[in-house]
Amino acid sequence: MAEKTVQRQCGFTLIEVLIALVIAAIALAAMSRSFGVTTHNQALLEEKVVATWVAQNALTQQQIQTGSNQFSREEKMLGRNWLLTQKIEATQLAQFKKLTIEVKPDTASTGDDASVSTRLVTVVGVP
């Protein structure tokens, strides 16, 4: 009598491989989305930091020289154009004035209406 030998096969079944591929695809899609959000947030943070520098420069210029109470001008910093709006208002104390500086990306070339990236509000002494 001939003996039948049963060979056990090792490895994964097709369904196991497909389930593993689905799990890997979902994980990769989540990582891709995470990288996209991180990149977007980094760009927004960079915009806010540079806009704050522009506002601080304008504040320093205003402290050095006296000028009009309200104006808008374009500034260039780090290869980008910024629209700077400055407004000086009276306070309850005559020797102080409220200075508000708003900075947003200059989007005149694209036609978009950008929101304010930073707003700097301070009190300055009247010379």
UniProtKB/TrEMBL annotation:
Which parts pass through the membrane?
A: 12-31
Pull one GO CC term from this UniProt entry. type II protein secretion system complex
| Gene3D superfamilies associated with the record | GSPII I/J protein-like
PTM section of the record: Cleaved by prepilin peptidase.
> Tell me, which GO biological process terms does this entry list?
protein secretion by the type II secretion system
Keywords in alphabetical order, please. Answer: Cell inner membrane, Cell membrane, Membrane, Methylation, Transmembrane, Transmembrane helix
- What is the protein's membrane topology class? Single-pass membrane protein
Where, per UniProt, does this protein localize?
Answer: Cell inner membrane
Pinpoint the Type II secretion system protein GspI C-terminal domain residues.
45-120
* A Pfam family recorded for this sequence: N_methyl
Give the function comment from the record.
Answer: Component of the type II secretion system required for the energy-dependent secretion of extracellular factors such as proteases and toxins from the periplasm.
Similarity field: Belongs to the GSP I family.
Q: How does it assemble?
A: Type II secretion is composed of four main components: the outer membrane complex, the inner membrane complex, the cytoplasmic secretion ATPase and the periplasm-spanning pseudopilus.
Q: State the protein's name.
A: Type II secretion system protein I
What species is given as this protein's source?
Thiomicrorhabdus xiamenensis
Record gene name = gspI
